[in-house]
Amino acid sequence: MSVDLSKLKKDFPIFERKVRGGNSLVYLDSGATSQKPNSVIEAESNFYRTVNAAVHRGAHLLAEEASQAYESARANVASFIGAKDNEIVFTKSATESLNVIAYALGNPNSRINIKSGDHIVVTEMEHHANLIPWQQLAKRTGAVLSWLSFTQDGRIDLSNIDQIITSKTKLVAITHQSNVFGTILPVEQISKAARAVGALVVLDACQSAPHFPIDVKTLDVDFLVFSGHKALGPTGIGVLWGKYDLLEKLEPAIYGGSMVDSVTMESATWISAPRKFEAGVPNMAQAVGLSAAVDYLNNVGMDNVAKHEHELTKNLLAGLASISGVDVIGPLDLKDRGGVVSFTVDGVHPHDVGQVLDQYGIAVRTGHHCAWPLMRKLNLVGTTRASFHIYNNIDDINQLISGIEKVKSYFKVTK
Questions:
Q1: Which of 32, 90, 118, 285 could be stapled to 170 by a disulfide with Cβ–Cβ 3.0 to 4.6 Å?
Q2: Catalytic residue among 197, 370, 380, 381
Q3: CA–CA separation, 27 vs 354, rounded Å?
Q4: Where is the Aminotransferase class V domain (predicted)?
Q5: CA distance linking residue 114 with residue 131, whole number of Å
């Protein structure tokens, strides 16, 4: 059953502007960053207007109100993913969140850590942000990095999972939804294999948390990250969720004010999680803005968000199938698939596809999508990618399909 969310477009002021050639904006790049509703813009702006002060530091009214707003945001984000308040760490991005985990696990003073000879498992679908930190952790510690592959149709290949996740595996770090294929991975199945050997599980939820319901308890993972700017929220704010007992066992990766319990000239001790991971004055206004984004998404209903994007994906896949010379890179059906669709146009470089579409006001992503190993395996220089959120509608899909036909005409693609 489809869900009509077309009326929500009016809540996003960016769609009031015109772009190249006086065209209305058709924004199909939410996989890179989402647009922001008025309520989020106002929440961040009002923080600066009315309560701006450093949180957890002053005894005056503004500091008290700022701290309350910040901690309320933490509680709201925790509820959004089925977590506890003291399990949410605010960072500047999902990338930073992943690096915080990697550095903490590489610290020999952490009560859980990665050592020489341990195995770290990722997938060939990973965004660089969930690959390079683990590469570097393996390099620093002498651990071994291995990976699960993918099938020809863009699904995760679990045929050899027992050979990849073994008794030597201490950490499994996977994406929830591929930012190239749109594939939703079977997290529970992979987590079960990790649990069987006592490995920790890190989940990159950047492409999932903004688009369908997330519950960390159901997923059975140990850490989860996502970014605010992809979830209708501000830039400069990321989320790191971790089980509280695990967070307490990890050493922080960044040091400074606000995260200490006691300091002498020779040593220091840390306050409890989550604040021991939040050194310095945090991203206060951005956290408040993210909380407003969570309110907005909750008001729409994450099930409705998922249904809406499912319908858009269905229409785009059907439209692309009708155009000769266009190949979808990823699953061709809707099973375990999100609103990210990558494609190629025969004989036309993805950047050229994107530039022609831009002339008609259609914004898509082109290139390797921070997934070079995946592209190399596919023997592609890149793809053109359309990705959705709640402000998109069927007219956007139709304009993209029409735009692709114009790309073919411009480059005289006859296939």
A1: 118
A2: 370
A3: 12
A4: 26-400
A5: 16
- Is 1 among the domain residues? no
Statement to judge: residues 276 and 199 lie in one domain? yes
Q: What are phi and psi of 169, to 5 degrees?
A: -75, 125
The residue type of 43 is: A
Q: Can you give the pTM of this predicted structure? A: 0.97
Which pLDDT does position 154 carry in this prediction? 96
Structure tokens at 212: 């369908």
Distance between CA atoms of residues 256 and 56, nearest Å: 14
Residues 147 and 216 in one domain: yes
Whether 92 maps to a domain, the answer reads yes
pLDDT of residue 98: 98
Please state the separation of Cα 328 from the chain's center in Å.
22
List, run by run, the mean pLDDT of 10-residue segments along the chain (415 residues): 79 97 97 98 98 93 97 98 98 98 98 97 98 98 98 96 98 98 97 98 98 96 98 98 98 95 96 96 97 98 97 98 97 97 97 98 97 96 97 97 97 85
Q: Which domain holds residue 53?
A: 41-298
DSSP 8-class letter at 1:
-
> Within this chain, do residues 361 and 219 fall inside the same structural domain, yes or no?
no
pLDDT score at 2: 58
| Spatial separation of the C-alpha atoms in residues 316 and 337, rounded to whole Å | 13
Exposed e or buried b for every residue in 53-84, given b needs 16+ CB within 10 A?
Answer: bbbbeeeeeebebbbebbeebbebbbebbebe
Q: Is 370 a catalytic residue?
A: yes
Write out the two tokens for 251. Answer: 């050493």
Q: Give yes or no: residues 62 and 25 share one domain.
A: no
Asked, for residue 86, whether it belongs to a domain, the answer is yes
Domain ends where: 262, 277, 298? 298
Domain total in the chain: 2
d(CA 186, CA 172): 13
- What is residue 60's DSSP assignment? S
For residues 223 and 244, is the Cβ–Cβ distance under 8 A? no
Report which residue type is found at 9: K
Q: Which helix or strand (DSSP H or E) is residue 105 part of?
A: helix 94-105
Q: Are 279 and 256 in contact (CB under 8 A)?
A: yes
Q: Is residue 415 part of a domain?
A: no
C-alpha neighbours within 13 Å on the C-beta side of residue 42: 7
Contacts 24+ apart (CB under 8 A), 149-152: 149/123, 149/124, 150/123, 150/124, 150/125, 150/181, 150/183, 150/374, 150/377
